[in-house]
Description:
The chain is an alpha+beta fold. The chain has helices at residues 13-19, 309-323, 330-344, 380-395, 398-408; strands at 34-37, 53-57, 59-64, 69-75, 82-90, 95-102, 105-110, 115-122, 128-136, 144-147, 152-156, 162-167, 178-185, 192-197, 200-204, 210-215, 221-227, 234-241, 244-249, 254-259, 270-272, 287-290, 295-299. Helix content is 16%, strand content 34%.
Amino acid sequence: MTTAIRRPASPRADRRNVRRATGVTLSAATLAGLLTATAATTVVSAPPAAAATTCSGTVSVYGVLPDGRLTFSAIQPSTGNLLRVRVGPDLGFEPKAMATLNFNTVLVTSTAGELWRVDVQTNNESLVLAGKERIADSGWTHDKLTYDGFGHLYGTTADGTLLQYLVSQDKPQGSQHIAQRKEIGRGFVLKTLAAAADDRLVATTADGKLFSYLIRSDGSWHRDDLKASGWAGFDSLVSPGGGLYYGKTAADGLYWYKDGNLADGSGADITYHANDPVTANGWTQKLLSAQPDTFKCTTSVDTVDRENVTEVKAAARDLMNRYDSGWANDAQWNCLNSLWTRESTWRWDADNPSSEAYGIPQANPGSKMAAYGDDWRTNPLTQIKWGLNYIDGRYGSPCGAWKHSQDTGWY
């Protein structure tokens, strides 16, 4: 149970600022789209849920043609319609793997093991380069490369080793800006690899499996098997975020898919658009890379059915992800879920008869939560917001609070 009052903490800038250093705002040259859909909700009691999922952004994809020329394509995410294609100059070297950092910066490795930074001046009416710089002369022998949009660059080697790098600048100039090389693991023998979200990867295998990987902050990882077959036909896979996947076939078609929930560990909610591809042929690029984190979906948590624990938990996870991007992963959510299940079973009116502890986080006394709203007695969202701030100020993370609770029986 809670034992001390905490004032609202200032944003935890250390990890957040470094991890988001390359999150560049889309330029005017990048088109925008908007898609709104009502989330499926099971109503247990009145009032009905008012949660909705809002998605926005444009899919931006860079590629390399067989003759070495760079390409740029913009796709409308809600329809899969191709908005424009631009072809630029020859890169001047034999590319092997590529990852897009932001709208005007692409990293490309060469077959000689070099790492190049390609700077784009414009991709609107034409694709014009501002230049390119070789930022490493050797050592970059990765067969696949992808960037998650939150500071982490991932690559695999021919022997199946997955590596992670920290990117600290929008336009890195060398090892001082692409550092902290970390070996995540071996056995990653994959046909395709793409970053779908912050430290979340999707990949396919030669025999058609679709995997999702969560890479934790300590370098450990968890794999979910989304599909057991059916994905063997793709020789490239990219994702702009928001649960969208784009797969290029050997027959030069580009097909699109929407994963309803990236974090649920299931592929059952993936929507297929097999009869409505971006294009059924003509997509001849030998390398593809989507600009990350440009298509986003958020769920409104302004109103929830407080008696529906499933809905309250969904809102809590969304609030947790917004509170600190470093908590936006399965590990931290599992800790928070375990903690508040033990404390209150997620009931907004949980009242401890032996103390003044109250609500979902069991604030003691419950009146502490008034700092976040006069409705603290009845509104689970007010209680959750207070609880997240308390956890941050006292333990640093949900897993820190859960460990303390396991060790002592309280937090």
